Amino acid sequence: MPEYSENSKRLLRGCDDRLALLFYNVIHWTDITIIAGFRGQILQDRWYAEGKSKVMYPNSKHNTYPSRAVDWAPYPIDWADTERFVFVAGRMFQIADQMGIKIRWGGDWDSDGRQIDENFRDYGHVELV
Known about the structure:
By secondary structure, this protein is α+β, with helices and mostly antiparallel strands.
């Protein structure tokens, strides 16, 4: 069974308990890695400048402590394999629903079930609603 690296565990410790629990349930199903949880101002503004985020500090759910957002990727990471991100996100929604947790996914910001209408797709982003 897959398990998180020490770095992924450390990042999850800075997240809202509901998100951490969700991701600990997801790792029992498939191998993923945690990229980011809480982000302070320096990192948030750098990611904004690099185009990795669309908002500056303090406007991201990553900027609250504990973080209300998690960035993740299927492991091993292949950023071009968007189908794998979509597949894992679908299962993540099922698990979240079973747990009674409402989430929003960066591949479908408006939660209409369609990805094609999104201007910015962040396939490895999940946040609490």
